[in-house]
User: Fold this.
Amino acid sequence: MSTRGTKKKRPQRPKKLRTLSQINKGAKRKGASGERAAAFELQPIWPDAKRGIGQMRSANEVPDVDGTPIWWEVKNTKAAYNIYNARKQAEAASDGRRPTMVLARKTGEPWMVCMTITQFRAIMLLLEQSTLDRDKELLDALQKSSK
Assistant:
């Protein structure tokens, strides 16, 4: 029996367990990356949108995305996130001068905006009062954006 040409399998090293601080660093990096991506998505509407610089915040300082009239809470997760918890987090952190909204995305999925029905109605009323032919142009824009 020839052993020529066969490779010996190396014993596998046991996986090194990550420390809590290493896990937290990874989560913070992912959060920061999501916040930058969210800001980029908002820049066509608000060119000054950028990741909030006070992300080492201890309390109510800045939203996850700053440079807009809205207090944004950003969630960028692998699994579905409880949107109500995100909304409560945004309201608790908010400065109280801006409306709060959640911008969330599950890995590999498009960004979603969560707002109250009252906020949605206010936006729709503003659109209705504008010079747009609301139904046709709004439906066309929504149709194009969902492709």
Summary: The CA atoms of residues 56 and 120 lie 31 Å apart. Helices lie at 20-42, 83-93, 117-129, 134-145. The first helix runs from residue 20 to 42.
